Amino acid sequence: MTHTQLTLPFSVRTESAFRQHLEERLNKPVSLVLTDNATTMLSFRKKDAALFIRLHRLFLNADLPVIDEIASFVRDRKGAMPRFREFLRLHRESLAAKPARKRSLRAKGRHHDLQDLYDRINSEYFGNSITAGITWGSRSPRSAVRKRTVGSYSERSKVIRINPVLDRKTVPRFYVGFIVYHEMLHAALGTPMQGKRRIVHSREFRERERLFQDYDRAMAWERGDRKTNSA
Ligand SMILES: [Zn+2]
Known about the structure:
The protein is an alpha/beta fold. The chain has two domains: 8-100, Zincin-like (2-Layer Sandwich); 105-230, 2-Layer Sandwich (Zincin-like), CATH 3.30.2010. The protein has eight helices and eight strands. It has a three-stranded mixed β-sheet with strand order 1-3-2, covered by helices on one side. A three-stranded mixed β-sheet has the order 4-6-5, covered by helices on one side. It has a two-stranded antiparallel ribbon with strand order 7-8. A hairpin with a 2-residue loop joins strand 2 (42-47) and strand 3. The chain is elongated and about 65 Å long.
């Protein structure tokens, strides 16, 4: 079964063809944003002469009568939308299914179990409030450029990736834990804007980072490790 791979079938119709169809039906310029938001499948607002429509990307694959129904609904601001509902009913299963990325998470390494570290840290420092996924990153040569990044957090997919170079016996567990904690802090704090700049490591971030039990040890190990690497 491949129905959990949500992005796969939607190349059937391109986003711009979809938007164009809506524009023809509505006779207005349309700004279309396709979302992964399964709670609000459709929302729209009028601004000046244009229509701003946010729609779940599932509908890229819908038949023309469904799209026409969406267009009428947006135009009249009302309507029962039976086809829209039927389409949703038929595809609910693929929405409810876990996204493919969640399934492909690989947290158990050869030497370090990321999920175990994550769960302990989540309970100790975050009151179990973090819901992000965690996985070892890929070892493929394509990502070799990113070798120097030990960890990352994607706000879009809500997945923490830890560089597999850390999955070694010689890398202490407290250091891996510190990197996991660092990325979990990103998940907890987000990246606030200051004017036009994104503050990735805010003052609050740095303060909370220092609360980690093994902070000093981790920092010392990192410095030592870098020395040996460059030697
Ligand atoms: Zn960071």
